[in-house]
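Continuing from the previous page of notes. For each protein in this section, the sequence appears first, followed by its structure tokens. Read the first protein now.
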Amino acid sequence: MFKLIGAVAGYFLLNKSISGAIFGFFIGGYIDNLIAPSKATNSQQGNKRHYSADDLFSYYQQRTSSNTDFTTMLIALSAAVMRADGKVLKVELDYVKSFFKQQFGPQFSSNHLQALKNFLDSDDIPLEQICRDIQMRTKEEVRVQLLHYLFGIAKADGVVSETELMVIRRIATLLGISSRDFESVKGMFYRSVDSDFKVLGIEQNATDDEIKKAYRMMAIRYHPDKVAQMGEEYQKGAKEKFQKVQDAYDNLKKVKGIK
């Protein structure tokens, strides 16, 4: 556009000179080249917005201040785990969508999926601020159940990678979840020689009485009634976790011959 304007302006300003028109044409072309990259950048930003950490937390606050449920909280943490290993897998996205549809029913909409995309596309997820907010709003039992859900996302492709484990461990720390609870939930997704001990939060050299005591404590701590106020899918996760505790105790009873 500026090529044409420059050519016309140069022609008349330099006494209707052909050389003036040519000079103006080149000046206009230079201006066009300067403007073109800016337009392309604006177009790309219009199609895909990248939130900064501060902008993303403001976006998070706006959504959670108007919602009484945990959708945005779950979405933010889900995105952090999904991004952990540098790629978002379809099986992980399907796991999250299935959970949300069963958990929130008709309340789950394309608006929530857009929110998930915003978190996934962001430059940085402000986990410290988000986890601090979640810790203030939720009970300890709910936060431990959140951990179980996050491990479920990581395990959706069949294996929990080291980077995913690091992110979940960081989230657990920021949420104020004890290392004992973290190792317990982790043990439900990792099978090893000491997994059953970890699920119950005890060492491999624990006595029979210590195993029984740990089981009773965990059975109370992880009982589904602790998160009875949550949705159906959340209850399902709590029941699965409670069953893992039962399975760990049954395994140890067989191995050690506990009556």
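Done with the first. The second protein uses the same format. Note its length before scrolling.
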Amino acid sequence: MPELRRDPIVGRWVIISTERAGRPHDFFQHEPVRQPPMSLCPFCPGQERLTPREIMAYRPQHGEPNMPGWTVRVVPNKFPALQVEGDLDREGLGLYDRMNGIGAHEVIIETPDHKDALADMPPKRIEDVLWAYRDRMVDLKKDLRFRYLLIFKNHGAAAGATLDHTHSQLIALPVTPTNVLAEIDGCRTHFQQKERCIYCDIVRQETGDADRIVAENPEFLCLTPYAPRFPFEMWVLPKRHAAYFEESQKTQFELLARILSESLRRMNRVLSQPAYNFILHTSPLHEKTGEFYHWHIEIIPKLTQVAGFEWGTGFYINPVTPEESAKFLREAEI
């Protein structure tokens, strides 16, 4: 029988309807391979002239900017959603509000190797990517026009990637996204009622139950959430309370890189390398959320489509229980 589950953070309901599908092979998608010649890839070494001038790069040999020799490279998006120059000019137009499209839109090129995916990279190289996220966040938060910094990754054409060379993106926004505000409101309410962080409560409960755990190490837990919107959705959370991703320390980045590597490899093994989205939710830049908010990463394989029911209700239909998803992922041989 279908089951309704409520997300305890934002109050969103999902329908777990296992009659619609069930096992990993039901979701295999044979996406056409789109591998352009490496000579045309703007993210490959030797093609630096094809991107805007770099903002930052890690170069072990301290070479020249905008030249080969880098391991991680950050450039402005060539087709930015927002532009960094200018003033916000907030104004009201009667009932409506508007402002200029001010922000920053950057691309983090995660490796010089065109054939590598994030899941294929050794944990040390994933750690370097995490440090790039942190360094860019620390720099951009100095700009008082920005309210929120979103890091995300679209892997595969079905997830929105337009280039095959593995990369992630950062967008600095002059407003806090409604999805994040809903999480913050839910966390604040829980804290006001119980004087505890709801994500910390989730970590404690999931560690005790163990049914939805995918992987863990001394600092991080990967789990399938109790009320997942999508099949095989995973969350990675710090075990210790932490509101700001950019304040993480070296040991934490080392262990985060390891659990990300393991989680992505488990997903690839079970789901035959699906397209996926990866989203980092952290605290807004100028709000005091440290007591009750908890940064985390959401990994969402692109296995189903959002359609009319979801748009019309805000509910999601998930054909797999999170317990079964976690079991498949946890038992995968990697």
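What the second structure shows: The first helix runs from residue 123 to 140. The two ends are 33 Å apart (CA to CA). We return to this in next week's lecture.
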